[in-house]
Structures are given as C-alpha cells and as structure tokens.
Amino acid sequence: MNWDWSAVWDFMPRFGDGVLTTLQILALGSLISFSLGLVWALAFRAPTRFVRWPVNLITEFIRTTPLLVQLFFLFFVLPEWGVKFSALTTGVLAIGLHYSTYTAQVYRAGIDAVPKGQWEAATALSLPAHRTWFAVILPQAVRRIAPALGNYVISMLKDTPLLAGISVLEMLQQSRLAGASTFQYTEPLTVVGVAFILIAYPASLFVRALERRLVR
C-alpha cells in the first residue's frame, strides 16, 4: 500500500472544518450534560415521590437505551410531530441529554459524599436552601466528582462520530466524504483516527492529574 500525501493535503480543509464542528459538539454537549445532570440530581432529592419517581424513570430509560437510537428518534421522529431541528442541533441535544443521565449519577454520588455535619452546620446557621446548596454542598461535591465528569467529556468526544449517521459534518463524516470523492479512504480515516488520539489522550492525562491533585 502506497501512502498518498497529496490525498492528505487535499483532505486538510475538510478536516479543519470537521475538527471545529466536533469541538463545537463537544463543548455544547458537555454544557448541556453538566447543567441538566445537576437538575436531575437535585430532582432525585425532591421531598415528594411524585417528582422523584418520574425523574428516575426518565433517566433510567435514557441511560439504558442506545445513544444512536435516541439520535435517530430526535432527528427522524420528532419532525413528524412538528418539532424539527438542524442536524447539528439534534446531535448536540442528543449527546447532552444522553450523558446528562450519567453525570446526574455522578452529581448524586458527590452530594451523598458530603459529610452530614456540613448539612447540620448550614441548618444551625439558618442558611436558606439556595445558599446551603450553592455555597456549602455543591462546591464540596464538585471537587470530589470533577475527574469523573472529565471522563464523561472524553466519552462524549468518542461518541461524536455517531452524528455522522444524521449527516453532521464532524471529523468522521468529512473523512467519508473525502474518501467518496477520491476513492481513497485510508488517508482521511487515518488522519481522523490520529486526531482523536491527539485530543483524547492529553485530555485523559489532564483528568488523571486533576484527580491526583484533588485527592491530596
């Protein structure tokens, strides 16, 4: 097999667009998953079971069904009900929603790990509920769970190629289009594979370093 450097060079403009789209999906999907995951986690602790039970049912359903099925449902089924988003928006929503159910469990574990004395101290100081959560409990919980959240960011990155199934022009889709136009798939797919390694591996090292720092 002969490596064709000209094919790599021709692919680079498409590749750059794909990288930007992938990073955009990752950033927005992470924002949704972290924010919505916190909402789920707080709902788990709601005083009424009429809130807890539906939330548990919804999150379990999302967490135990494949992301690709959810992606296709949002993209192909919702338009039949008059709800339509662009392919990119659909992909971001699907990834963010799917991973929010995992980050919710991480948040819940972090909240449960906060010592009981912290809750009692907040009660003794007569702190209102919002200050108890955002000034006392959540800062301590997030410190414990930051490495786990970082691992899910890496998982989201590795799942972005699924969005090629609805024609989002992320890195994998760009490589497929480049291969289809030149009938040379080796070079663009190899470039994309290396790109994922160059993004994910340093990120995993950062998460490990963060974990070591926070457990001191």
Automatic annotation (TrEMBL):
<keyword id="KW-0812">Transmembrane</keyword>
<feature type="transmembrane region" description="Helical">
    <location>
        <begin position="189"/>
        <end position="210"/>
    </location>
</feature>
<keyword id="KW-1133">Transmembrane helix</keyword>
<feature type="domain" description="ABC transmembrane type-1">
    <location>
        <begin position="19"/>
        <end position="207"/>
    </location>
</feature>
<dbReference type="InterPro" id="IPR000515">
    <property type="entry name" value="MetI-like"/>
</dbReference>
<keyword id="KW-0472">Membrane</keyword>
<dbReference type="InterPro" id="IPR043429">
    <property type="entry name" value="ArtM/GltK/GlnP/TcyL/YhdX-like"/>
</dbReference>
<protein>
    <submittedName>
        <fullName>Ectoine/hydroxyectoine ABC transporter permease subunit EhuD</fullName>
    </submittedName>
</protein>
<dbReference type="InterPro" id="IPR010065">
    <property type="entry name" value="AA_ABC_transptr_permease_3TM"/>
</dbReference>
<keyword id="KW-1003">Cell membrane</keyword>
<comment type="similarity">
    <text>Belongs to the binding-protein-dependent transport system permease family.</text>
</comment>
<dbReference type="InterPro" id="IPR035906">
    <property type="entry name" value="MetI-like_sf"/>
</dbReference>
<keyword id="KW-0029">Amino-acid transport</keyword>
<keyword id="KW-0813">Transport</keyword>
<dbReference type="InterPro" id="IPR014341">
    <property type="entry name" value="Ectoine_EhuD"/>
</dbReference>
<dbReference type="Pfam" id="PF00528">
    <property type="entry name" value="BPD_transp_1"/>
</dbReference>
<feature type="transmembrane region" description="Helical">
    <location>
        <begin position="20"/>
        <end position="43"/>
    </location>
</feature>
